[in-house]
């Protein structure tokens, strides 16, 4: 049996298999999931990790033992699971550890309509009930139906972005041996795209590189292939393919803030005056561009549960995060890296400019990227920074400490799970950005271990 207190996080379940998460635990969670959500039926999908199929099967046994009917979608990306939950109007569970190493696995849970389940909305209760049910397996009372949802998922995404008039494009996609290798061929089928696939073989051991496009080292093969093939752009997906990173025709990374602004402008063309969500460490250019296109920007804390809750509250049509998560009202307020990729393909294919020129219009400032510092006393370090910058800009504490001046800003916030402070800085020019970044880091690291 795994340690439930350790593997249940704020937004999902994640741990090492089998030491922390095993089939007995998954079965107990399946039973608890049905009891706590009151689900009469549920949908389940899993990624390509060796442990994912057996863990999903164990969860299904637990759910059926409590009388729930189960639709088993088999292999899928996380956004395919959201599609299943939304289109079937069922609560769902995705077995994946996203970009984590091969020895990990986990669960992402949602209620019907892809509404996320987090620590504040039922995950704690599921954890506690699962702890009581470990080993208490019962005979299956609910039915089991296997259902292939890939074609429906691909078709639905294609209804949300008009790609009918795009010019032929050369595209390199690095799936990192993750679920993008499963979903991209289905979604791209019939489009005027010359596809160069990298690492499309489903392999949960990740033999080529980690399926985490936020790490620059994991983009090098994609960048090289874009240049070698003369491609118009490159796309990199994480392990469960819910995040997408974009590389332009020069092999240069495109900031997720620029993608957020680009997609926001496209959504506002369809929905004039709509609300757009952005978290507080996306570029200052995002709310500027939203306003210029007649939209209403709303700033939130970092984290998908905050984004989704604020989108539901405001009816926002779109939301973007610095981590390459993109959320869509027309996709049940859920995130889909694939849907964001289709918007980029449409924006590029509707005209003749190269991608670097297209996204250049949405890239206005110079950003540091996220810089982590190991700190033994986070509060003390934050206080020192606050004292140093208190009279140099506007301060707010929506999420950590944000200091804003006319030509620069930074946010410094603590990790929820590690002794880290995370710094993001941005300025109108590179020199100022580096100066602000260096000054904050010098203060932070004086009290670091």
Description:
By secondary structure, the protein is α/β, with parallel strands linked by helices. It has helices at 4-7, 23-37, 52-65, 78-88, 123-133, 150-160, 180-188, 220-229, 256-270, 285-292, 304-314, 337-349, 355-360, 378-389, 430-445, and strands at residues 13-16, 41-46, 69-75, 92-95, 104-111, 115-116, 144-146, 169-174, 193-198, 233-237, 244-247, 253-254, 275-279, 296-300, 318-320, 326-328, 334-335, 366-367, 371-374, 394-396, 401-405, 408-414, 420-427. The chain has 4 domains: 4-148, Alpha-D-Glucose-1,6-Bisphosphate, Chain A, domain 3, CATH 3.40.120.10; 152-161 and 169-251, 3-Layer(aba) Sandwich (Alpha-D-Glucose-1,6-Bisphosphate, Chain A, domain 3); 256-360, Alpha-D-Glucose-1,6-Bisphosphate, subunit A, domain 3 (Alpha-D-Glucose-1,6-Bisphosphate, Chain A, domain 3, 3-Layer(aba) Sandwich); 367-445, Alpha-D-phosphohexomutase, C-terminal domain (TATA-Binding Protein, 2-Layer Sandwich). 37% of the residues lie in helices and 23% in strands. Strands 1, 2, 3, 4, 5, 6 and 7 form a 7-stranded mixed beta sheet that branches. Strands 18, 19, 20, 21, 22 and 23 form a 6-stranded antiparallel beta sheet that branches. The longest helix is centred in the last third of the chain and has 16 residues, at 430-445. The protein is globular, with a radius of gyration of 22 Å.
